[in-house]
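Task 17 of the worksheet. Students: predict the tertiary structure of the chain below and write it out as structure tokens. Keep your answer in the requested format; marks are given for formatting as well as content.
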Amino acid sequence: MARQGAITAALALLAGVLLVQGLPMLPARWVSAPTGLVALALAWRSSRWRWVSFLLLGTAWALWCGALAMDARLPRALEGRDITVVGSLVGLPLARTDASRFTLRVDRAALDGHPLALHGRVTVAWYDGAPPLQPCTRWHLLLRLKRPRGLLDPGAADSERSALERGIVATGYVRDDDGNTTLAAPAWCVDGVRAAIAHAIETRVHDPHDAALLRAFAVGDTRDLSQDDWAVARANGVSHLIAISGFHVGVAAVFGVWLALLAYTVCPRLGLWLPRPQAQAAAALLAAGVYSALAGFGLPTVRTLLMIAVVALARCSRRGSNGAHSLALALIVIVLVDPLAVLAAGFWLSFVGVGFLILCLQSHGRGWRAFLHELSAGQLLMTVALLPLTLWFFGQASLVGALSNLIAVPLISFVIVPCALLGMLLLALYPALATPVLWLAAHIVHAQWWLLERMAHWPGAQWYLPMVQPLALLLAVFGALWMFLPRGVPLRWFGALLFLPLLLPPHSVPAEGAFQVWVLDVGQGLSVLLRTHGHVLVYDTGARYPSGFDLGEAAVLPTLHALGINRLDLLMISHGDNDHAGGVEAVVAAFPQARRLAGEPARMRVPMAQCVAGQAWQWDHVSFRVLSPAPGGGGRDNDSSCVLLVAARGGRVLFTGDISLKMEPAVVAALDAGPPPVLVVPHHGSKSSSSATFIAALKPPLALVSAGWRNRFGHPRPEVVARYADAGVPLFNTAVQGAMEVDFPADGPPRRQPGWRLRQTRYWRE
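Model answer:
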């Protein structure tokens, strides 16, 4: 394929695939067939319109693959049923004190002895004393499964999109059953080799943290890295370097070239059988392929491997290939092999980053000065060029990332990774010699991480912006390209101005006397955000689980950042149950100056004052009053919940925590005259709350319940839903709606906005 033609084909193919990813729902699968036929006809009839044919081909292929992926998901009728599954472990299982978690590739499945057409990957948790799980093993298990379903909040990660991109067809857990047993497994597999290397590193490196980091660099094993480690990596902009990255695969290819050169130096007669350039190309591809396999064939490594393959094949066939042509061919191959790869952040960071380097980084000769110039200029270029995409996908960026990468990239790629490669090679050839090499690598990793931990606390290390809009993203990417084009391009400084819509987004805050309420989607828990013109309150923070997953960090903080909130005035925790208070430490760490109140301060993991009935204040002409618990309360039960009434000219809202039927009459009695309040439903809609008398006394115009999708408690209970329906009260659930927003304007009644799930419609959220 001609160079210019390959680039045009790659961009058109990518555009066609992207068109499909923006659809709220997929058309029937048969639509892809006529679309593909039209594409082939255009390609055959006219070379002028060949780019259109590639665009249509990408559309047809993405429609077909998207429909296949959605059809492969667990049927809704089977959610919550016990299914017998036979499958093999994929990747490295994660063992924690609360559960073991792993990915299972399903070979066959059955329900009540009848075969099911369920194939693909399922993510599984095994609670209550799971046996030791080894990579590559096959198991016969009884699973309780459901379709992939994630939380949807502004700024938070989209786990449903991630599940589609990774081929996850269901999630679930292992049921207690005598039939759960291991089966015959292959003698070895790549993941088994990865696990063996990881274990060898662990036994040879005495410091557990150094060993964990070295395993990540060597074989992409990140199981023992903590949330703090990832926070340090994000603050320094080096997350892409922690596990095996594409650049590391390039280093492995160079390692292969050196090995081939060494072999030809030792035995020159090899040149009689195969010319050295072709042998070096083959050795580079082999080394890169082996190293990519040890990384689990992640997208950045596959992209680099494909580019190396293009160059190696061109060298073997004695044909030239420049960087742009190689990148275009790699893009075509990835999109054709897996069009859903465009849903991954790594896809865009990889291709856009390399594309900018090819287009904008100019060579300055040879030698150390040229190398240092290109290294420093390349880090600056990558930091600026990838800033818009980083903010788009992650909601944050690191302003110290250019300096951190200037230190980390050469150290990791030219010292740590080669040491890890040499250590792994010696583990196979002469294990005794591997110990000093891995010891040296571990000490270098330790020193580097010590420096990164301190740089993570520099000003600007963690920089947040409100949610990025598509137009601002495109303008900023184009601005970065304009800024770094070769000298001679006019008005290059003008590219910086195109960053302004990204860096200075419009702010939408309530007017004086108005306020806004967000009931966040935190699963089976509660977290509410209330915002006035100049103040912010967070009521509850969701749960924190033994696995380390923290809703305060995963949902509450991203939502605050996405809405442009950089200050918290009051954190109120209704009571001490984990589903309300679990995320409190993460929120307090981010906003240590916020005032803190709680219904059960003795159960809090951070110091908090007692909330008491009668406490009142006013922000921006919006009144706040605590209705419960009474003075002297603060016991250890749900009825100790802080009950908060917020009132303004446009309406009122009542936060009730987990109060029960016993406390509801007292809350009603404490209400003063005023319009009926919007109600955040008590205790997630349990049968022990929301009595018919309580609902009739409040007459809420709207009721909002926070509950988990298919939660084990059955919240909201059907009888509770019926009570609200009988009273004519509209009831909305975060499990169905995602995060829910209600506006209380100063000049009108409350207005409920569409749920976040309805605002962010995509076909993978059916």
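Marker's comment: The first strand starts at residue 82 and ends at 95. The chain has a mean pLDDT of 88.
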